[in-house]
Amino acid sequence: MGIDPVREAEVSRFESSLVAGRMPGSGEIALGDEMAETVGAQVGDEVVLVAPAADGSTGNDLFTVSGIFSVGVGAFDDSYALLELGTLAELMAMEPGRIHEVAVSVDRVREAEGAADRIREAAAAIAPGLRTEPWSVLQPQLFFIVTYADSMNWVVAAFIFGMAAFGVANAMLLATFERRREFGVARALGTSGLSVGRIVVFEGVLLGLLSLGAGLVLAIPLMIFIHENPIDLSRFVDTWSFGDSAVRPHLTVEYSVVGPLVSAIALVITGIVAALLPAWRAVRVPPADSLANR
């Protein structure tokens, strides 16, 4: 496979997967670790590459092994070799600068569909036959797994917030019962039921904000640490590969604004919703009964 050694790191993990040597330059080749083991090649050795050329002839040349990579996918590690674009074009008797595929990287997984549509529209006028596909079409199995994982995340989040709402409601119901006399005195002095309910709801909001603050204090340092130092779980779990994809057993955290913001808003709303039942119970406390301890 022909690559631009400098720009390849922006769209693939070949360079970060090097276990020896470096990316190939002119007249050099990088091999997958399984292929290198099969042919008995090491960094610095010379190998002969034979391949059918574009003009129908057979291309062959001698290349120096510059590096050995291991991406964890058998389809790559045992059958892929990387060459610099110009070197491959010369081997394959192709016109200089001719390429078959351009890979584009986006910051977020969900941005791929929109990016593919924009590229397709922009290229329609200059390259009518250009095929532009997002990764979800090229890797349908991986897309299914990512979509399924996202759905499970929502289920887990709903369960966690449900448990949080139950805990807050339970604590506030107990607090409301213990303060029945206080609410009765307030009602007897002319405080409206709506005002009493607002007090209880405000306490729920305050509890949610305090929980949010405590969560931020605990989570932010941990998130930064894991982002900078991913936890390697390879001693417990092997790299999982299927098709042309691999899932490495590394626990990491990616910085995001939308996720934490949605969680923060959901936590405050959870506090408000959890306080509604205690507020309703506080409003319905009869002043006479509460003052008489009934």
Characterize the structure shown.
This protein folds into two domains: 2-103, Barwin-like endoglucanases (Beta Barrel); 140-291, no CATH class. It has ten helices and ten strands. It has helices at 33-39, 74-77, 85-91, 112-123, 135-138, 140-178, 180-188, 193-228, 258-283, 287-291; strands at 2-3, 18-21, 28-32, 46-52, 58-69, 81-84, 231-232, 240-242, 245-247, 250-251. Strands 1, 2, 3, 4, 5 and 6 form a six-stranded mixed beta sheet that branches. It has a two-stranded antiparallel ribbon with strand order 7-10. A hairpin with a 5-residue loop joins β4 and β5 (58-69). α6 (140-178) packs parallel to α9 and α8 runs antiparallel to α9.
What is the percentage of strand-forming residues?
5-15%
What profile does the largest beta sheet have?
6 strands, mixed
Instruction: State the total count of DSSP E strands.
Output: 10
Intertermini distance: 83 Å
Structural class by SSE content: alpha+beta
Helix/strand order:
EEEHEEHEHHHHHHEEEEHH
Please provide a brief summary of the model.
The chain is 51% helix and 15% strand.
List keywords for this structure.
Barwin-like endoglucanases, 2 domains, elongated, 294 residues, alpha+beta, 15% strand, 6-stranded mixed beta sheet
